Amino acid sequence: LKLYSSKLAPSPLKVLIFLAEKNIKDVEIIDLNLAELEHKKPKYMSIAPNSRVPALQLDDESVILETTAICRYLESIYPEPNMFGETPIEIAMIEMWYSRVTYELSTPLAHGFRHTHPHMSKMEDQNKEFGLSQRNIGVRALETFNEIIASKEFIACDKFTYADIQMATNLNFLVRLNRLELKDYKNLNDYVTQIFARPSFSV
Q1: Average pLDDT for residues 20-42, to the nearest whole number?
Q2: Given the DSSP bridges, would you call strands 2-5 and 63-65 parallel, antiparallel or unpaired?
Q3: Which helix (H) or strand (E) holds 5?
């Protein structure tokens, strides 16, 4: 297995954290230089035509794109420790919170960054008005999730799951990239600090 990755972006970092949580060591990591647009060069695009990172290339040269699809594939091969749920209610709750974090919180913050940050001008066809409106939606979501996490140790259930990788990693990247301060949302800041103290997050 070959994982085309980069520690500079949240999506590939999630897979690296997932590998570390499961202590998976037989995946070759190929680090791409995103700053030099290595992911947009023909060599990589022959593997990932959408030029997105990460990409998992199997031994038969099949390629799996998209972070969650990669992690679900790896979970099927390395089922322990379980990260996507074992009981019906665990599976449902992890899926629900993963989706809520993705679409209510992460997506607007990601659009805010991609469409307003000058460093993204070479990578995105920017629409500043759209980016600012999405950033405002993201700020309201931060306020909502700051209340949600106040009474929880983990976002989905009573253990660390893939939903926590999604939430903590995105918050750590996207809040500051939108020129916001995570410390202004105390409960979220405490949550991210706790999650990032896990050894797997030091990859």
Answers
A1: 92
A2: unpaired
A3: strand 2-5
Model-level pTM?
Answer: 0.90
Mean of pLDDT values over 75-93: 96
- Name the residue with tokens 């699809």: 69
What average pLDDT does range 9-32 have in this prediction? 95
Say which residues have a Cβ less than 8 Å from residue 59's Cβ, sequence separation at least 6.
Answer: 1
Asked whether residue 121 carries a pLDDT value surpassing 60, the answer given is no
The residue whose two tokens read 């099927």 is: 76
Contacts of 102 (CB under 8 A, 6+ apart): 166
Burial of 167 (0-12, 13-18, 19+ CB in 10 A): buried
Q: Tell me the average pLDDT across 102-118.
A: 82
Q: CA dist 107 to 34, 100, 102, 149, 192, Å?
A: 20, 10, 6, 19, 18
8 Å CB contact between 152 and 164: no
pLDDT digits (tens, 9 = 90+) for 125-158: 667 787 788 889 999 999 999 999 999 999 999 9
